[in-house]
Design a protein that fits this description.
Elements: H1 19-24, E1 29-33, E2 36-39, E3 44-47, H2 50-53, H3 62-74, H4 86-98, E4 103-109, H5 112-129, E5 137-141, H6 150-155, H7 159-162, E6 172-175, H8 181-184, H9 200-208, E7 213-218, H10 234-245, E8 248-252, H11 266-270, E9 276-279, E10 291-296, H12 297-303, H13 323-339, H14 341-357, E11 365-371, E12 374-379, H15 388-399, E13 402-403, E14 405-407, E15 410-413, H16 421-437
Parallel strand pairs: 3-13, 5-6, 5-7, 7-8, 8-9
Antiparallel strand pairs: 1-2, 2-3, 4-10, 9-10, 11-12, 12-15, 14-15
Helix pairs in contact: 3-13, 4-13, 5-12, 14-16, 15-16
This protein binds pyridoxal-5'-phosphate.
Length: about 450
C-alpha cells in the first residue's frame, strides 16, 4: 500500500476526531481479521473495542463476507417504501426470536442515531394515534449518549455533544445520571447503591404532569459516557414508574445489544423489558450500516387503523432494510448462533472482570466498572487538562499494538466476543504499562 502524503489527508474532515493531531501522526488501518487489525505499516493491532463497540463476532467472518458478496450480485437495492424483499422479513423474524417476549415488530434504520430518532418519533406518534396527543415531552438522562441527530442530542446528556447546537428539541427534560463514585467505586458488576435514583422521574412527573410525558429513554449501560453500570434495582424501578404513569420506556441498546452483557440484549441481563428498543452496531457486526427499532406488539397495533391503503407511520429511510445490510445481519446472526457468542460475555465476564480490576491501585486509577465484556477504567485528570491523560494512554497503547478507546478520562474496553483469555491478558498488561507510564 502506498504511504499517504500530507496532502491526501487534507480533504477528509474526520468525525469525533482530533483532526490536527491525527493528521500529524495518522493511525491508518488497512486490513482486519479475527481479533486483529493490520495498520499501514503492517503492524498487528489487537482490537480491544470491537472496532467501535460493533464488531462483536470479530473481523472478516466468512459467513458475513459471503452473504454480502452474494447479495451485491443478486439484488443490490430494493425500494423499501411500498415494496420489500424477502430477506427483510426473514431478518425481522430472526431478530424477534432473540428479543424479550412481546417485542416483536422491527422497523429498520441505518444507524444508532437514526434508531433513536425513529423511536422518539414512534413514541410521540403512538400517543397521538391513541388520542393522547398531549404527551409530547421526551425525557433523557444526564450523561446519556443517543447518537448525534437532533432528537438524540436533545435527550442525550453529554455536554460536549450538546453545547454547540442551539436549542435542539423543545420540551425535553432529563433525570439525573446514576454515577455515584463515593459509594460505588470499584464495584465488580452492578453497583449496590442507587436504585432510588430512578425516583428522579417522579420529580419530573410532579413538575410537568404525566399527561405531558411521552417517553423516557436510557441506555441500560451508559457506554459512551464512560461505562456506567445500572445500580441493582434501578431499571426495575424506572419500569415501575413508567407503568404507573403511562410513559413509554425506551432502552437504547445500540451498545448493549447483541451479546455485550452476556445475553442477546441488556433487557435480558437486567430482567427489564422496555416498550421500544433501539439497536445498530452488532446487528451487522459493523460490516454494513444498519439499525432498527424493535417495538412491542401493542405499539405497532395502535397505528394499524384507518383506511388500509393509507400509510400508517410517515417515517422511513431510502436505505431502510437495505438488501446488503439484511444479508450482512443474517450472516451475523448465523455466526453468533453457531459460535454461542450472544452468551459468551457471561462466560468470560468473570475472567475479564478479574483482570480489569487488577488495575486497581495503579497511579491515578479512581474507579473501575464492568459488566459482561465491557469495562471502564476511570483516571484522575491531569490538572487543568481534562481528557489528556487518557488520550496519552490511548496513544501509548496504539504504539504497543493494542486499540482501546477513551472518553473524557475514562478508558473503555469492549472487545469482540470471540476474545480469548490470552487476548484479555495482553490488553490488560499493555494498559497496565501505559497507565504506569502516564503517571
Ligand atoms: C447508546 C448509543 N446510541 C446511539 C448511538 C449512535 O449510533 P451511530 O453512531 O450508529 O449513529 C451510539 C453510538 O455509539 C450509542 O452508543
Amino acid at each position: 500500500m502506498s504511504q499517504p502524503t500530507d496532502a491526501n489527508l487534507d480533504a477528509y474532515w474526520m468525525p469525533f476526531t482530533a483532526n490536527r493531531q491525527f493528521k500529524k501522526a495518522p493511525r491508518l488501518l488497512t486490513r482486519a481479521d479475527g481479533m486483529y487489525f493490520t495498520d499501514d505499516k503492517g503492524r498487528q493491532v489487537l482490537d480491544g473495542i470491537a472496532g467501535l463497540w460493533c464488531v462483536n463476532a470479530g473481523h472478516n467472518r466468512p459467513r458475513i463476507v459471503q452473504a454480502i458478496q452474494q447479495q451485491a450480485a443478486e439484488l443490490d437495492f430494493a425500494p423499501p417504501f411500498q415494496m420489500a424483499h424477502p430477506k427483510a422479513f426473514e431478518l425481522a423474524e430472526r431478530l424477534v426470536e432473540l428479543t424479550p417476549a412481546g417485542m416483536n415488530k422491527v422497523f429498520y434504520t441505518n444507524s444508532g442515531s437514526e434508531s433513536v430518532d425513529t423511536a422518539l418519533k414512534m413514541a410521540l406518534a403512538y400517543h397521538r394515534v391513541r388520542g393522547e396527543g398531549s404527551r409530547t415531552r421526551l425525557i433523557g438522562r444526564e450523561r446519556g449518549y443517543h447518537g448525534v441527530n437532533f432528537g438524540g442530542i436533545s435527550v442525550g446528556g453529554m455536554v460536549g455533544n450538546r453545547k454547540m447546537f442551539g436549542m435542539m428539541l423543545s420540551g425535553v427534560d432529563h433525570i439525573g445520571h446514576t454515577h455515584d463514585a463515593a459509594r460505588n467505586a470499584f464495584t465488580v458488576g452492578q453497583p449496590e447503591h442507587g436504585a432510588n435514583l430512578a425516583d428522579d422521574l417522579e420529580r419530573l412527573v410532579a413538575l410537568h404532569d404525566a399527561s405531558t410525558i411521552a417517553a423516557v429513554i436510557v441506555e441500560p449501560v451508559a457506554g459512551s459516557t464512560g461505562v456506567l453500570i445500572p445500580p441493582k434495582g434501578y431499571l426495575q424501578r424506572l419500569r415501575e414508574i413508567c407503568d404507573k404513569h403511562g410513559i413509554l420506556l425506551i432502552f437504547d441498546e445500540v451498545i448493549t445489544g447483541f451479546g455485550r452483557t452476556g445475553n442477546p440484549f441488556g433487557a435480558q441481563t437486567f430482567g427489564v423489558t422496555p416498550d421500544l428498543m433501539t439497536v445498530a452496531k452488532g446487528l451487522t457486526n459493523g460490516c454494513v450500516p444498519m439499525g432498527a427499532v424493535i417495538a412491542k406488539q401493542h405499539i405497532h397495533d395502535a397505528f394499524m387503523n384507518g383506511p388500509e391503503h393509507l400509510i400508517e407511520f410517515f417515517h422511513g429511510y431510502t436505505y431502510s432494510a437495505h438488501p446488503l445490510a439484511c444479508a450482512a445481519a443474517l450472516g451475523t446472526l448465523d455466526t453468533y448462533a453457531e459460535e454461542g457468542l450472544l452468551t459468551r460475555a457471561g462466560e468470560l465476564g468473570g475472567y475479564f472482570a478479574e483482570c480489569l480490576h487488577s488495575l486497581k491501585g495503579l497511579p491515578n486509577v479512581i474507579d473501575i466498572r464492568n459488566i459482561g465484556l465491557v469495562g471502564g477504567v476511570e483516571l484522575s485528570p491531569l490538572p487543568g487538562e481534562p481528557a489528556k491523560r487518557a488520550f496519552n494512554i490511548f496513544l501509548d497503547c496504539w504504539e504497543k499494538g493494542v486499540l482501546i478507546r477513551t472518553t473524557g478520562d475514562t478508558i473503555a474496553l469492549s472487545p469482540p466476543l470471540i476474545i480469548e483469555r490470552k487476548h484479555i491478558d495482553h490488553i490488560i498488561d499493555t494498559l497496565r504499562g501505559a497507565i504506569q507510564r502516564a503517571a
